[in-house]
User: Fold this.
Amino acid sequence: MAQTVSLNAERRSTSGTGAARKLRQAGMVPAVVYGHGRETESLTLNLADLEKALQGASGSTIIELSIDGTTLRALIREIQRHPTRKTVSHVDFLEIHAGEKITLDVPLLLVGTPEGVRNAGGVLEQFLRDVEIEVLPRDIPERIEVDVSALEIGDSLHVSDLSVENAEILAEADQTICTVVPPRVEEVAVPEVAEEEEAAEPELIRKAKDEEEGAEGAAPEGKAPQE
Assistant:
C-alpha cells in the first residue's frame, strides 16, 4: 500500500504574486486543492512541516490534508520550487475518494543484481523510473518492484513484463525499463612512431660498424699490411 502522510493546512483568501511573496517571507507556502468536482480552493501550508512531510514521499504518497479541522485525502500533483534555493514555492493537491479510480505515476524499484553484472561484468542501465497506472486509492502501491536478478548481458525488461495487482498499467507495453549491456572497454592510444625514425637508428648502427671494420683492416701509414 502507498505511504500516508498527515499535513495541516489553512484556507487562504488572498491571491496574487504579492500575497504569495509575503507568505513565503513568513515561512509559509501557498497551495491549492482541486478534484472530485469541487472548485479549486486556495490553501496555506507551513514550509517546515511541508518539507518534513515530503521526505521520502513520491507521486503515489497519500496526503491526509487537515484543513481547519476537516480532513481529506489527496495526492500531490505538482510541486514548484525556487530556481536557486530549491525551497518549495507552491503545491497542487488532487483530492481523491475511495470509490473513484485515479491515474498516477508509480516509481519503479529494480531489485537484485543481474547475472550479467555479477558474472560477466556487465552494466545495468535503467531507462524508465516510473509507470502510469489507473487504480483505486486503497490499492495504490507505494512502488513497483522489478526483479532483475535473472538478466544476462543483452537481456531487457519492458512494461509488458510488469504486473500490478488491482491496477491497470497505462504505459505503452513496448517501453524498455532496463537492460544489461556489455562491460565498457577503454581504448588505450598507442603512440605512433614515424617510419623515418624507425629506419634512422639501424642505418647509423650499420654505418658505425662498417667504419669500425674498415679501421681494423687498414694498415698504418707507411707500412704494408701484415699477413
Notes: The two ends are 109 Å apart (CA to CA). Residues 4-97 form a domain with the Ribosomal Protein L25; Chain P fold (CATH 2.40.240.10). Helices lie at 17-25, 47-54, 115-118, 195-217. The chain has two domains: 4-97, 103-181.
